Amino acid sequence: MTSQVSNAATDKISPNLPLTDEQAQLVAHIMAFTEREIVNPGPAIFTIYGDAGTGKSVVLAHLFAQIQAAARTDTTTPLAGTENYFLVNHPEILKVYKKIAGSQAHLFKKDFQRPTSLINQIAQGKKQADVLVIDEAHLLLSQADHYNNFYGSNQLTSLLQTTKVIILVFDETQVLRMKSFWTEARLEKLLAPYRQETYRLTHQFRMQASDELVAWINAFSHGQLRPLPHNVGSSYDLRIFTDAEQMRQAIVKRNSAVGLSRIVSTSGYPSTLDGGHHYIQEGRFRMPWDQYNYTSTPWAELPQTINEVGSIYTCQGFDLNYVGLILGPPVSLNAHNQLQVNLDRYTDVEAFKHRADLTDPTELTAVKKQLILNSINVLMKRGVHGLYIFAHDERLGRYLAQD
């Protein structure tokens, strides 16, 4: 994509962005798939696989804009008059898409929904859906969640029962909670009975970093710690800090210069959804966790959030220009210089809610550890132009800081 610095989240996934040849061909291929399958008994599914930053959302933005233009303006297409929706199970990302809709001729804000809302409206006979485009499908609930008014067993299963065509993007390394626990194998098993096609995006667009650094992050998020590569990319800024306050000051400078630069952190610090302020403290550094964002503006675009610490729940799916990451107590370095995941130090109690289909203690432990590593993967890949890291564990910090 482009290497220019942007200070608006909508600039990162707008359907006005230019596509690469590969992306344009993929959009055209999925449009042909959709027009072919919409006239057949449903459902048919097109799955796009890809790691964080591989351009999945940009492809979907272009695709949905074309689908809605065809549905609303072209009487010669099989899509004419169809009722179609774009779903994402993340309130902050949904705000970005709704903001984009306001500037596009054939996109309406009502086209963009959270899955539970659409599922319940379809069940009540208030809506129907012909084509669904699902961003961040790895966030779909895979068990009931009464807190979010979902009473089915699996959101994707519910949607498959009511729709003709579904296009979704999926990345198992961004699964963060038990209630939305997925793997590629689980997804493939669920979709096996249906007509489907798949495509895998591999090129990293978000991070202006070297392939070596991206590979290092991927290894880290699978529990493998290696020395940091010397080549991180000529236009990418990687820094390791042993003082969290110094890192904060560096991010504040970046934010003043180019915007969209924020401090984020893993779990492992006091945090309760009670409306109060809960602080992360590391030496001289003391800042509150992000607060629930009731505005229509994404969290990272609110000026005051430079004084908050972002979490996976405010940052997942977003492009920041520079990100300062606090690796909290759940991850450390053991005496053998191996990465260690400490389940007892993870404070996000919602992440590990019980699942009846995970009964083997060994498997359950492995899944929980991978969810923590997935959260680190998500946070490390937020920065387009730079990643700054501070580790709570001193041994890990020293290891990362070694030349």
UniProtKB/TrEMBL annotation:
Schlafen group 3-like DNA/RNA helicase domain: residues covered: 44-393
Transmembrane segments: none
Gene3D superfamilies found in the cross-reference section: P-loop containing nucleotide triphosphate hydrolases
Protein name: DUF2075 domain-containing protein
